[in-house]
Specification:
This is UmuC domain-containing protein. The chain is built from 18 helices and 12 strands. It has helices at residues 15-23, 45-49, 58-61, 72-86, 109-112, 116-129, 143-152, 165-169, 182-190, 196-199, 204-211, 213-222, 233-242, 259-275, 307-321, 343-346, 351-367, 375-379; strands at residues 7-11, 32-36, 39-43, 66-69, 93-97, 100-104, 136-140, 158-159, 243-247, 278-289, 294-304, 328-340. Helix 14 (259-275) packs across helix 15.
């Protein structure tokens, strides 16, 4: 029998809103919406009460809330800051996206001479006081229960004792399941499965038969089971660099409308490749629909680190798999094969483009990621 683990989750609620308020404390308590382009992507509780939510057009949100633009660089910086704080307590730290983090604190008592829950309380306090970020945290024997508990909790750290997980989460609404979309939630509720206790009564094979692999995971989590390991922060940082997830709003449900987000991903990947003196040899693109169906395709490339070549390759893959009429929830773009050596070494005739990209990199380093933008991106409204 395996020893019980001490796995914690830290949830930074509405992180883009928290960053806006950290920069402008006068916005505390006021309705705040954060937008990417013409669409709201995050809101405060006050804005939600005013009828503003993710997907609301900025033109309408401005009448009910203070609207601020999303700052991807600020989000990236705070991710690094949070990772550095959590790494003070354990090397096993994983960023789960959406402002959620996991920590494996098993065995830390021998080093710190403190119970793991005390370490979690200390880490949460540091995030609130040093980084000025609203933080909720919980500890359990697995990732999912800890995250769901933290998402529904308050600033107090919650500890779920080993063996108590099924009874503790029984009353949780199914909406708290990590990664559950609105369509999937609606399907669960149509089956009379409103709470995790309801879900736990359904045999795992039946859930898997109806909802695929996700259904089996939901069934396990509703029973308090989650043996997944916590990845290390260094590993996670490297994965994130080559794997970009792009949530699409209701206004981006076409190949043309999704273009600006895809170009932004190509720019980030191109910059990462140039910084490492590497080139992309293969690109993989995955589309996740609102009903949970996924489509993926990859393509081998002429090795490149250039933004527009990556963008054109990603666009071709998207055209090839954008075939269903169901709305798209997320597109992920990944460099699945990298080759050492800068492109300019192989194609000296195109050195002008390489110099241009390096010049743009330098300008963005000094003045910000959006100091210089391609005309195609501006035309897309982002």
């Amino acid at each position: 029998m395996h020893a019980a683990r001490d796995v914690a989750s830290v949830v930074l609620s509405d992180l883009p809103v928290a960053l806006v308020r950290r920069a402008d404390p006068a916005l505390q308590g006021r309705p705040v919406a954060v937008a990417r382009g013409a669409t709201v992507v995050a809101v405060s509780a006050e804005a939600h009460a005013e009828g503003v939510g993710p997907g609301t057009p900025v033109s309408r949100a401005r009448h009910r809330a203070v609207v601020r633009p999303l700052d991807p660089e600020a989000v990236a910086r705070v991710r690094a800051e949070v990772g550095a704080v959590l790494n003070r307590y354990t090397p096993r730290v994983e960023s789960a996206g959406g402002g959620a983090w996991y920590l494996d604190l098993s065995g830390t008592r021998r080093y710190f001479r403190k119970p793991p829950v005390d370490l979690l309380s200390e880490a949460s306090l540091v995030l609130r006081e040093e980084l000025r970020l609203p933080t909720r945290a919980a500890m359990s024997s697995g990732k999912a229960v800890a995250r769901m508990t933290a998402a529904l909790g308050d600033e107090r750290v919650t500890r779920i004792l080993p063996g108590a997980e099924p009874s503790f989460v029984r009353g949780f609404p199914v909406s708290v399941l990590p990664g559950l979309g609105a369509v999937q939630r609606s399907r669960l509720e149509r089956l009379g499965l409103y709470r995790l206790g309801d879900l736990a009564t359904v045999p795992l094979p039946r859930l898997e038969g109806v909802f695929g692999a996700s259904g089996r995971l939901w069934g396990q989590w509703s029973r308090g089971l989650d043996p997944r390991p916590v990845a290390g922060w260094a590993e996670e940082a490297d994965i994130d660099q080559w794997y970009l997830s792009l949530p699409l709003s209701p206004q981006e449900q076409s190949l043309t409308a999704a273009g600006p987000a895809l170009l932004g991903a190509a720019e980030r990947l191109g910059r990462a490749l140039r910084d490492r003196a590497e080139r992309a040899g293969r690109l993989r693109l995955t589309v996740v629909h609102r009903d949970g169906v996924e489509r993926a395709r990859s393509a081998r490339l002429e090795p490149t680190d250039r933004d527009f070549e990556l963008f054109e390759a990603a666009s071709a893959l998207l055209r090839a798999i954008w075939e269903r009429r169901v709305a798209v929830r997320r597109v992920t773009v990944a460099v699945s094969e990298r080759i050492s050596g800068g492109q300019g070494e192989l194609f000296p005739a195109d050195a002008r483009m390489d110099r241009l990209l390096r010049g743009l990199d330098a300008v963005r380093d000094r003045f910000g990621a959006y100091a210089v933008q391609w005309g195609r991106r501006l035309d897309g409204g982002t």
